[in-house]
Amino acid sequence: MTAKSAEAAEVGAAPGGLTRRRRRQLSLGGQYGLFAAAVVLVAVLADWETLRLNFANWDVARSLFPDVITVGLRNTAVYTAVGFGLGLGGGLLVALMRLSSVPPYRWFATAYIEVFRGLPLLLIFIFVGVGVPLAFPGANIPGGAAGQAGLALGLAATAYMAETIRAGIEAVPKGQLEAARSLGMSHSRAMRSIVIPQAFRIIIPPLTNELVLLCKDSSLVLFLGITLEQRELTKFGRDLAGEQGNTTPIIVAGICYLIITIPLSLLARRLEARQRRGQR
């Protein structure tokens, strides 16, 4: 084999042909060209004035304030916070039961996780809104709509957070627990003081992602039969869009969701990056 043939084989091309790198560059150039052509085609053919009037009508958007913040955004944040708090507390309890040496505890925790992770969240909301009042006549869930929404979100979040917390606990080196026991600590105290704090430092990023998901799932609160003052962002946007015959309120509601979720997503990525640096 000649030197020229060897060099061509090394770069992935026959003598006199295109190199592998050049073929890849041409392929990427073609893809970029198609994408640019599609953008130009949409920009030329779309009726931007009609889109603006129906999706970005400034007069309609301005009429939503301040209620979209003081009612929709506030209620969404409250429902999300209550659901996250219940899910975090319940998830820790179920995770400890899942790791317990007592078989009935493990069986209950396993069944709970599998059932509530498998059910659509809509069915859980319907169960809380309809099933609980029928099962316990005259009993009221504390907190009204916030309590009902928080309970529904918390029941689902508990199942997901339980698995996250369990994985975090199992990620803590077993030597930590053994060292604490050798110092005379009881198992429960070693878990509270040594293992669980380290586990939570490990699982902060996935818990932040769970908070983002709960914020979006709070839109299902509309199935609880809430009042005007209890509306979250999705219900608020839908009601105003129907009243005004314009889609702008839904777009504004979506932007308000982004005000919550984008900072949380950025926080989760920053925490994940910090955790990776700490493991090096």
TrEMBL record:
It is a multi-pass membrane protein. The chain crosses the membrane at residues 26-46, 77-97, 118-139, 248-268. The keyword Transmembrane applies. Residues 73-268 form the ABC transmembrane type-1 domain. It holds the Pfam family BPD_transp_1. Keywords: Amino-acid transport, Cell membrane, Membrane, Transmembrane, Transmembrane helix, Transport. SUPFAM superfamilies: MetI-like. InterPro entries: AA_ABC_transptr_permease_3TM, ArtM/GltK/GlnP/TcyL/YhdX-like, MetI-like, MetI-like_sf. It is found in: Cell membrane. The keyword Cell membrane applies. Belongs to the binding-protein-dependent transport system permease family. HisMQ subfamily. This is ABC transmembrane type-1 domain-containing protein. It comes from Actinomadura livida.
